[in-house]
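Below is our example:

___
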Amino acid sequence: MGKAADNKQQKRDALLNTAFSLFTTKGLHNTSISDIVEQAGVAKGTFYLYFKDKYDINNKLVVHRATMLFDAAMARMKEHDLKDCREKLLFIIDDIIDALTENKLLLMFISKNLGLGFFRFTVENAGITEHPTIHNAYQVFVDEIGDTVQDPKLMLYLIIELIGGSIYSSILYEQPVSITELKPHLYKTINGIIDQFSSGS
């Protein structure tokens, strides 16, 4: 990466990090673009080079933070000799849940976007250009599954929706049970979804 490109990336990262700080302390509606650029130390014109408005940066920030979680989980997965796609998927899920358990602020921020929004951004649209790691991993996963699973895209969507809808209260409030108690049931259900989509089922 050249100096100019590196400088642009630093400014974009500064805007994203500042927006995250403000959105999680003041809230999206109580944060203005002026608040973001002032605290990030960049000109307002610079903001519009990367984002349309504060809702656009919020959407991209969700994907940015979720992708960071996924990238970290992928890196840790590669430290283990996992051959089976199901094992790889469950490892990544478990790693991300543990990370969100440790970072409840991040969980609260991205919880409403773990499903369709995250899926569309990272797998179908923005993921191709802005977040190639997760998009490429998705393609590799689909290629590895081959003919063993019917409609892997729908299967992954259902799994992501299940996770997003079930872990929030469990992690934050231990309701209806703690995340430790929930995990075995969650993973059993995920395995059931995979079995349901497996060819020949």
